[in-house]
Design a protein that fits this description.
Distance between the termini: 10 Å
Strand content: 5-15%
Oligomer: single chain
Radius of gyration: 15 Å
Number of helices: 9
Largest sheet: 5 strands, parallel
Strand order of the largest sheet: 2-3-1-4-5
Bound molecules: shikimate-3-phosphate
C-alpha cells in the first residue's frame, strides 16, 4: 500500500474513527482534513462557516486537500462529509490515491448525528425547526459523488482486516 488512502462519506459515517484505527494497524500517519483546517486557520469549523460562508470554506478545503505531500504517502486522510462534492475533489483523490466510501445504514447515521448540530453547520441548516429539507436529502444528492470511490464499505462497524483486504485487492 503505497498510495494515500482517502476515507470519504457522510457526516457520522465513521471516517475519523476507522481512519485512526486503520493508520495504527498499518503503522502509517493519520490526518483529518477538518483538523488540518482548524490548525491552519485557528478557527473551529462552525466559526469558518460563520466568518467565511460555505463557499470560502469549500475553497480552503479543496486547497488543503491538495497540500498533502503525496511523496510522503502512504497515509490515511479522513475527509469532511462534503469534500468529495466540490471542485473535482473526487477526481483528484481518485487520481492520487485510493478512495474508500464509508456507507453505513441511515439508521446508524441518525443515531450518530443526534445532537451534533452545533459542531456541524451543514447539519444545523438541515435540522432547524422549519427546515424544508432533511439531511437525508443532502445525503441523496451527495451519493453520486461518494459512489465514485474505488471501494465502498456498507457496514456500520467494519472489521479492520476486511478493510485492509479491500484496499489490497
Ligand atoms: C461537512 C462535514 C464536516 C465538516 C463540515 C462540513 C459536510 O466533516 O467538514 O462541517 O459538508 O458534510 P465531518 O464529515 O467529519 O463531520
Amino acid at each position: 500500500m503505497k498510495k494515500a488512502i482517502y476515507l470519504i462519506g457522510f457526516m457520522g459515517s465513521g471516517k475519523s474513527t476507522l481512519g485512526k484505527a486503520l493508520a495504527e494497524k498499518l503503522q502509517i500517519p493519520f490526518f483529518d482534513l477538518d483538523d488540518e483546517l482548524i490548525k491552519t486557520y485557528h478557527l473551529s469549523i462552525p466559526e469558518m462557516f460563520e466568518q467565511w460562508g460555505e463557499e470560502k470554506f469549500r475553497t480552503q478545503e479543496a486547497e488543503k486537500l491538495r497540500e498533502f505531500d503525496l511523496s510522503k504517502a502512504p497515509f490515511v486522510l479522513a475527509c469532511g462529509g462534503g469534500t468529495p462534492c466540490f471542485f473535482e475533489n473526487m477526481v483528484w483523490m481518485n487520481t492520487n490515491g485510493q478512495t474508500l466510501f464509508l456507507d453505513p445504514p441511515v439508521s446508524i447515521l441518525t443515531k450518530r448525528l443526534a445532537g451534533s448540530e452545533d459542531e456541524r453547520p451543514v447539519l444545523k441548516k438541515h435540522s432547524q425547526e422549519g427546515a424544508s429539507v432533511h439531511w437525508t436529502e443532502l445525503l441523496k444528492k451527495r451519493r453520486p459523488f461518494y459512489l465514485q470511490a474505488a471501494s465502498r464499505l456498507a457496514s456500520g462497524s467494519p472489521k479492520l482486516d476486511e478493510v485492509i483486504h479491500m484496499l489490497n485487492s
